[in-house]
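Bug: token stream looks shifted between consecutive jobs. Job 1:
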Amino acid sequence: MNTLTTKAEPASSTAPTEDTPSVGAGRPARRGPLFLLALGALTALLALAVVHISQGTAPVGLRTLWGALATLWTDTDGTHQADAVLVASRLPRLAAGLVVGCALGAAGAVLQSVSRNVLASPDTLAVNAGAYFAVVAVAAFGISLPPLPAGGTAMVGGLLAAGTVLGLARAGAGTTRLVLAGSALTLGLSGLSHMLLLLRAQQTTGLYAWGNGSLAQIGMQTIDRLAPVALLALIGLVVLARRLDILALGDDGAVVVGVSPRLTRATAVVLAVVLSAVSVTVAGPIGFVGLCAPAIVRLIGAKVPALVRHRAFIPASAVAGVLVVLGADVLLRALFGAQAGASVPTGIVTSFFGAVVLVYLAHRSRGGGSTGPEAAFARLRSRRAFVATLTAVTTALVLAVVAATLLGDAPLLLGDVGNWLTGRSGRLVTFVLDTRVPRIAAALLAGAALATAGAVVQAVSRNPLAEPGILGVVGGAGVGAVVTLTAVPLAGFWLISGSALAGAAAAAALVFGLAARRGLEQDRLVLIGIGVSAGTAALVSLMIVLTDPYNGTKALVWLSGSTYGRTFPEVLPVLGALAVSLPVLALRRRELDLIGLDADTPRLLGIRLGSARLGLLGIAVVLTAAAVAAVGVIGFVGLVAPHAARALVGQRHGRVLPVAALMGSLLVVVADTIGRTVIAPAQISVGVVTAVIGAPYFGWLLWRSKASR
């Protein structure tokens, strides 16, 4: 298992794994530099606070600010209206930034320590996604909760998500494994959240923008009730600082001195989730602050050794979190103006910045190797098993297509289909099948393309838990398509598809270019791809929030994956991509087999590993981009179908590719049929259904691979 470290991290001979952040026990350090650093941080914080307060639709000077503060204590009859606006809006926004920054910075620092992983944070552990889903689920059913119960709801959701990810990925099990587990659970929970946002749009009005993290506040009511909770949790973490220092020496050493590793970790995780829940309740899930703040402190710790102990590391990360949040909010309103600052979520800026930090850390990582279980690649199956599997999957796909043709908001009979094929059907049947059959064709072809691309990505990365979305291709395609949707509301399918293809190509070029160091090592490729995906998601959210409501809803539906309104000409690009790619992959199936084994065997047999990986990944990019352009974003197909195919027919790609393509088509056709029928005449996007199906399956894969270790 290879893990991620950075060149800027201070070395620690006591750390049990390479993932362990460089905090913990160490030699006593002089406090002079630490005092100067604290003074500088407080000065920067004060300066940011002054600038933050001064931003808005009306100019505010120091005299006005001082008068407003005095009014807060002395004015009881509401006569100072201008100052009242300042007190009711700007000061609460500043207070929200302070609370959220402290909470996320400290939570990220502790989560990194207890998981011994420099990329652990409320985002990568799906804490924010779990908390957000819990809040959306409550709001979707028309329940309005006061601040404290809302915070409790968010805490339960976040705690369940964090426990699931940590249980699946295992403490110290590796950076890529943890990020994959968190990303998969986040995708599943986000799919459920998007489904509720679309189906219960009236009850969840405004929650999409809030879901990206916004500091906008009306009054101090929420902050007054939740700030003490955050303060108590922060104090609890500082009290645990010495135990966390001891825990960094290793579990055996901690037990010797009387520290329970399990109890310490559990307590720290609960307190970190409480902080994250407070943040989500106050401002929504503001992304990547919990990753960036400890990373900044760790980089400074190379020059100021006193920061490596948790009693300094946790408060320093909290202060760094405040600087990141307030700095992002100041930058947001400076770039988009005071009026946009009220509608554009601050979390979009922090997510983009955090994505850059994640890419930077991955780019500077040392080591690369297979991060997932390789048992799935080692199975052998007989030719008879392959033929039987191929026959069974083909039969199931035919039955699924027949069911998809007959079922929907207007059920049909086989005789109706026969009449339609011979041109003798009535007007209603003709209309239904003219719209339904192209949707089935789109699902069929897109599923095959995504599954084939997933099989290639898993072989090249030697990671059966990878999927095409980690290359950033899906996110890049989303940026290209949403740019067109928002800039040209009347854009046709071909313009949107071309934009999606261009965005996918640009994202793939960025990922491959950054990961090309040391020959596209798979750990680096996966982590950079996830970082680029996060950055593109932030850009998409920005465009959706800035656009008018009609285009925003249209983009949100497209990002959820949908076959609605597809015609036969619109699926031709996917058909063309499959027609070109499948023969090429069939000819290169031996390369896929060898590259999936290890890094040395292909070189010994004369295969240029770097160029071979690049060419194969290029094919995966084309297939993924074509599918995304046709039906939007559909997750987990590229993970589930190839893995199931390998489990059934073995590791030879001459057998895996056709079975995976058929299983991908089967999965998307079934998901589309479920989405069209379960709440007919309303519909659930196919991407949401596949996310709901795929997330548990992915968790089972991680659990199974963990048990096999």
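Job 2, same session, no restart:
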Amino acid sequence: MKNFTTESAARHGVRAAGLMMAMVLTACGGGGGNPGTVSGGTGSGSTGTGTGTGTTATAAPTVTLGFTNAAGASSTALTGATPLTVKATVLDASKKPVPNAIVTFATDNALAVFSPTAGTALTDVNGVASISMRAASLAAGGAGTVTATSNVAGTTATGTANYSVGATTLTFGTLSASPAAIQAYGSTVLSVDVLNGSSKYTDQQVNVSFSSACVTAGKATLAATVPTNNGTVQTVYRDKGCANNDTITVSAAGVAKSASATLTIAPPAAASVQFVGASPTNQSIVIQGQGGNGRTETATLTFKVVDIFGNPLAGKLVNFTTASTSVKINKASDTTDATGQVVTTVNSGSVPTSFRVQATLPGTATNGGADISTLSDSIVVTTGLPVQRAFSLSSGSFNVEGWTLDNPSATNVQVMLADAFGNPVPDGTPVVFQTNMGAIGSSDKGGCNTVNGVCSVAFRTQAPRAATPGLPATPCNAATPDATRPGLATICASSTDGTNTVFDRTAIFFSGSSVKYVYMDGSATPLDLTKPVDLGSISGSATKVFALQLNDLNNNPMPAGSKVEITSMLNGNAAPVMPGTVPNIAPHSNVNVDDPTGMTVGADPQGSTHVFSISSTNPTQCSPAQASFNVSVTTPSGLATIIPFKLSFTCP
């Protein structure tokens, strides 16, 4: 999914319902009964809320939970390298499997996250719904609970199961330097693998920190932090007069033990050669004949020869070589000028690659050693042209308040571009944005220019608020029509590789400022909001738990960040609403699959679901009463919708 970090799964806040659904059905004065519990796998099951007049527990639907690892074996141990599959079995009151039931899963998102992010799944013919769960981060650790909730024949059933999260144990391989010994002012390539067991850890990037005494003293240069690439991290160490052996240490968050290696550095002798820099300064050139915005096919490398005290040496012959066969050094040797500097150029070939140029002072070898030399930094040869498969578009928020309000800072829309080899496109690559609702960009430009392959623009809500099919004409709707759901804006971003147009689209809800359609406990029929909603009656010792899906007048989500709470409570107690605010909700299909483009958005309501729990003020005494309260929804602009409810508490 191409978006900022969203919690679109939270639109079904039912996932947190199990945290408050301990149903106490102890009767007052001898009536009523206790619901049964059902165990299965590593979890437990519970029934929905009910009342009883006899002494025998009433059969009710159940949900049981279990975990399996990638090998299919039962396991409750979750790490960053070992995800789990959560399976919920839904049985009806007759203990028969319930197919095609929606099961909502919830857990502490600081420990684990679900895939799909909606946190919902349908049961199969055996009544089993499955969902993948992975650790929230490498450092996540502790124990958590998964809660699964389903509605069977109007009764809410919940099951829970516990699991443990172990921080992923990573180690370093051997830190190596190539070469292991360098001349004064020379350079070497440091390399180390990050391992999970005996294999490279490639599930995600790990930021590795490098340090040494010479770097701290300002006598050497070294990148402070470098991310892994396919489990390996490399960086260049450059001497600046350390004049001693230096110990380099690597460390990283999530790696328990650091690794170190000692680099042999020759003290300054008669002279040394230093790499001064490369042009272009981003150290990237394009493939021969490819061109590209702001790119060149030629790299210019500058070296400097100095004496033992760092003074420039003129008239010194320097030879240039490279191990790469894919590039051409245009000048194999040159003589330093009065500043001690010498320049060579390198032309790209026909294939993408990376290379270094070695500068050598011939005739400077002593005691049978090698001539004084140094390596340039890596120069990358790539196309630099954006490609369709590396065009990524995302929105800061998918449901913004804007159906009736003008919002000049509703959200931001970001685009990321890379070339055919996965490298960011050149700085200054232009991106054009268009929208069929609201406005995007700024007054001086309708788009943005990339920096390191990324740029973003502001999106605001204003007229028009109704999309006209095919207008404006964009590269996106030239390929496939835009979404036509009321209140859903389509944004198209595009650029060019010089020949072809590359593009992507995203969709944003213009959410209304008042609640119009409310669906309770998965019902397909909205509540009648013209009068107080009657929740019926329950035993005074019981707790009423119900879920509401909140939608605006277009059956779209309320604005992200809208506050949902219970107010004006009379003769009752209320637990905190779960969740207490409307989350960021991306458009999704009728089977709850996120689709930020809006192309497969279903006709079903798109709103967020929230769970409420109401109990009597006198749960241990027989005291018939009627509770009344409001469900209040307040948008970020301060507009509130009040929905009245009532609930009766009875004695057996």
